[in-house]
Amino acid sequence: MPVPSESEEEEVVNPTLLVLGNHKESAFNWQYRRHDEWTENYMLYRDKVIINRLTQRQSVNVPLMKMSIRTALKDIDDPPMLYFDNLDNNKDKEIFYNEYFEYCAEYNKLVIKDIVDKKQVFLYGRSFKKLNIVNGRFFFEILDPQDVLVDRYVDPSNLDSARYLCHQHIFRPVSSLEENENYDQAAVKKLKEYMATQAGLLKADENLQTVQDRNDRMRRMGVPDVDNPQLGETYAELNEHYLKRWDDKEKEDQYWLIVTAEGREILLEEKLETVIGKTVDHFWRYHLPFTSWGDDVERTDFWSDGMADTIRTPNKILNSWLSQMIENRTLRSFGMNFYDVTANKEFVPQVYEPEAFGWYPLPGKPADVYQRVDIPALTGSIEDMAFVMQLAEKATAATSIQQGVSEPRKITLGEVEILMANAQERIKSLSVFYVDNWKEFGLKYAKMLEAAGDLLDKVTLYKKGLWNDEMYPRDVESKDWRSKAGYTCKVLSRSEKDDEDSNVLQRMQGARADMPDNIPLIEIYRKRLLEFGKFTPDEIKQILDFERQRLNTLPMGGGELTGQPTLTAPPTLPQARPMLPAMIP
Q1: Does the pTM exceed 0.70?
Q2: What is the extent of the structural domain holding 501?
Q3: Which residues contact residue 129 at a Cβ distance below 8 angstroms, ignoring those fewer than 6 apart?
Q4: Total domain count for the chain?
Q5: For residues 238 and 267, is the Cβ–Cβ distance under 8 A?
Q6: Is residue 496 part of a domain?
Q7: Per-residue pLDDT tens digits for 237-288
Q8: pLDDT band for position 101 (50/70/90)?
Q9: 347: closest CA among 360, 362, 326, 327?
Q10: Nearest residue to 140 via CA among 85, 82, 179
Q11: 547 falls within a domain
Q12: 145: in domain
């Protein structure tokens, strides 16, 4: 039997690659049905239309998509407020921990990325955040939904229920793969040999163009930290596969991280807990370093609709009608004419430049030589377009009042306030999904720092002195905030927190009036009052510690009571009732 040559030998495919390929194909098909809709939403938002010979003959676009989304963003543009409570009740560590998160938020441009996150939910119905530690710093990024493939049987309310997730379209220079100690260098060597072949060179050119297109698309979306590709390097596409596998030793399913290059080489295959690190509760066995949310979550479809899906069809109708109106006006302005070719075969009409007092020759009586083409005006189009826009406003709560435009009819101030309140309540109804997602993000942030805190570099933070304007530096590292019990996260938007604090202070005034000598109640009230005054946690701690020391030095009898509060309430809040003489010690 003849021995086959190397060219005739079939390449042995790793069984793991086959499993990952099947998962990825299924997840891609589940997402692919949304790609055309996402493209249309994005093009309408970017004021781009495709011309056709029937309905869209003019390159015009009614900015309904951008107007509605920007109006909705206007009411929810406050960044999230995350605060971490130390479960060991160690306030010093809690202060260090929250100061470090403020540093991470500023370094990661949290305010800008939060706006991009909300905009993607409006445009595509889904947005993803990925948590990581890069070069000794905590890092998170907003991912393009098209770059994330999810198991079709995932529970839409819980991303961690997915048995498979793939972060695709990760483009890296081949030369940089050798610098990663976690990657299998034998697989990297095989990849370099493949990329040097003719097929590999073609794939490298395709990847280079893809990374340029992807970066350009993300830059238009507002992400500030997109780097331009370095031309001349060979790029390889990496895929990060997160796959649940049964662990015979632990008798449970656990997440594995498998990194593949070009779908042919496995660079990394480890348990996710091994890659990130262990926590007391083995958090990273059962959770993904991703969070996702949408504002129209349903049970059967993870890729739910966004606000742009509601606006897309009305926007296309308006574009079609506006295009027809413009063409109608253009044709009526320029004019078209018929002429009799049998009357005078030598007569060939020509186009004359219109000028004042101009004379234009015709071979005979003008009424008998040519006839103007009748193009009737389109009537009622403006009213019809206004009706469609009203439908879109009602569906998205981006009403004209929300946009700062007055209504044409006369309405009272009370009616305006009611309409404004109703529209704002509908827009802010998505805060349920938004706050829950950021709370999950805060939990995973805390667990990542707990598991991989040793990988974080020491940072120098600066704080202004309490009694002066001088800046004081302090080096902060993981040992300063590491806690055995860990941390819990609470989330509020700035406007919601202000409203809630104001209402709480109003209610606490009633309790103070009924129990004026209750020292714990007074201390709680003081703390809430200082928080409402925008004092930082370390400032609140110093103020309350000083107040406790001052009260402990006061005599039990005399002009001032031990439990009497020394901080005065804001003028708008009701004052507590005076104490009765019988209650004075």
Answers
A1: yes
A2: 491-576
A3: 117, 140, 141, 142, 143, 290, 291, 292, 437, 441
A4: 1
A5: yes
A6: yes
A7: 899 999 999 988 888 999 999 999 988 889 999 999 999 999 999 999 999 9
A8: very high
A9: 362
A10: 82
A11: yes
A12: no
